[in-house]
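Notes to self, phosphoenolpyruvate carboxykinase (ATP):
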Amino acid sequence: MAARTSALRSLARACGAVRRIHSSRVLADQAKIRAPIADALKVRQPQAMSVPKDMAQFDDADMAILHNLGIETDAVIHNARPGTLYDEALRYEKGSAILSTGALAAYSGAKTGRSPMDKRVVEEDTTIDDVWWGTVNMGLSEKSFSINRERAIDYLNTRPRLYVLDGFAGWDPEYRYKIRVITSRAYHALFMHNMLIRPTEEELANFGEPDYTIYNAGAFPANRATDGMTSGTSVSLNFKAKEVVILGSQYAGEMKKGVFTIMNYLLPKQGILSMHASANEGQDGDVTVFFGLSGTGKTTLSADENRKLIGDDEHAWTDKGVFNIEGGCYAKAIGLTREKEPEIWDAIRFGALLENVVFDTRTGEVDYDDNSITENTRVSYPLEYIPNVKIPAVGGHPKNIIMLTCDAFGVLPPVSKLTPAQAMYHFISGYTAKVAGTEMGVSEPTATFSACFGAPFMVWHPAKYAELLAEKMAKHNVNAWLINTGWTGGAFGLGHRMSLKDTRAIIDAIHSGDLAKVEYENFPRFNLAVPKSCPNVDAKILMPNKTWLDQSEFERMSAKLSGLFKENFTKFQDGCSADIRAAAPQ
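result:
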């Protein structure tokens, strides 16, 4: 028994030793596993950020272009292609997404449209006698501009990455200007890549110093205490320093219209007419220019499958002909359908930029009818995305000038032929109308007048642009037409909108020359020459009063609109000739 007990004890000791050896091995193995996990989870002190030399930071970026301006940012993405800017926006900018069509979605923040009341032009000795000072061009001291510029540079210096883009304004090499954009957002760089004319590799290599520089620090507000500031938003232009400073607005359209404002000063100074207008060219090289405010159909009507598009918004008219100022289009996207705007719809693909649209985050499908962010949803894309565009975007002298108005009073004819004096009068007036809204007490349309069909962007007195237009129209024997794309048979709420089919038929008749050959009659009070017939258009709609059931109501509305025209023109008449003043409605 004693021997058996001793043997069992020896066995127990051996088993215990085995268990201890096994346990120690398990603990050792567990320690090996736990060590890297613990190391990975260990809280480390943050280190200074280093920017990797990846595909988005180019070795050929010349840092001196920023250092000379006082900007010392580590990473500069210079003249990047859309693919790189997509990558940057998706990594660093909230609201960015690749949509189902391949376009990039971007969000501009609180500002979803331009801020015209926050635009300022610096009062300095080289231009103070040229600028049309007032509500359009509000003055700013050089000191306040310097404060804003310093504030913008200070903000840009806090950003880990900046985007620099170089491009041209103006397709005619003789009159083009070099523009440099410095911004903290890839979205802005892609937008200006689309909207400026893109230089070739050789042109970029020899770009040199820009003619104008835009500092876009729109994510940082202006200091309201700065003299001349009325809000946290400021878009200030200094012609002497050749700089634009943007604070407090990330809406990309501020850059586009900043460049247009620059061109609206520089070109007329050389005897060149800058125009807020679209233009297209027929198969025989005949050019038509379309002036018109928002909602008049300027973009829609200039897009014609039988004519090449030169551009949809900004042009210049030289002694050689017309040229587009821009390298892209910036179209409204609200309510967009392929049926209504096939060319714009098809342009929404890789490289295009959709601004402030609502989309399904799972499918990337855009709801173009959703205005919950803004009514002013937009799409930016290069000119080349339009199938029948003309590149280079230049043309000869216009044969026809069409001034578009959306008359919601239902008074103006669908088409009328203008005398030279009437053309100047309606050009300076820049009339269209807004329809009645949903506010209590608003029951009639509201007239809108914007001199030269683009007052917010004009720098000189409107008479300067009108004189240039008159001179060029006379020299090249250009026909002028006023086309109403608004209401007929009654004002808004009673009548109905002119059909796009009829308006296109009228424009086709202008282009064919057929409308110039028909008989005309006078439209009372406005003294406009109205055709008695037009191919493919019902003659009954051509004289407005004949489409109204209540003639007394038509007379009342006609007198009202006439009075609005005359009241608006009082601020321009001192700078206009007697024949232009005589072209006013009676």
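- The radius of gyration is 32 Å.
- The longest strand covers residues 161-169.
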